[in-house]
Design a protein that fits this description.
Blueprint (H helix, E strand, L loop, with lengths): L1 E6 L6 E6 L5 H7 L18 E4 L1 H4 L7 H7 L9 E3 L11 E5 L11
Parallel strand pairs: 1-5
Antiparallel strand pairs: 1-2, 3-4, 3-5
């Protein structure tokens, strides 16, 4: 199991959930009601599942692919530790992964 700590864009709300190894961060976030659209279903056709990974956790993730980097160029509010949640697969080795929603994150499928 991996623990995922979700922090709202304004930093006021924090939730921690457990997720089994092998799950994509996007699926865990959506199951927890986090505001990630992810309309491309992980097919790398959009950048709507962008999250900001905590600096202390970022280097423990495998590097982003060139395609992911290109898609992040299209996202708003990208930082040095930004990643697409659809491309992060949780592993036991991660322990706890902390991510923050970028400013303006919302789930268009629910609005």
């Amino acid at each position: 199991m991996t623990r995922v700590r979700f922090i709202s864009a304004d930093g006021r709300e924090e939730r921690e959930v457990e997720a089994p190894a092998g799950e994509r961060l996007l699926d865990v976030a959506q199951a927890d009601g986090q505001p990630l659209e992810g309309t491309c279903e992980g097919q790398m056709a959009c950048s709507t599942c962008h999250v900001i990974v905590a600096a202390e956790d970022f280097d423990r993730l495998p590097p982003a692919s060139e395609e992911e980097d290109d898609l992040l160029d299209l996202a708003a509010h990208v930082t040095r530790t930004s990643r697409l949640a659809c491309q992060i697969v949780l592993t036991e080795e991660l322990g706890t992964l902390t991510v923050r929603m970028p400013k303006g994150a919302h789930d268009m499928q629910r609005t």
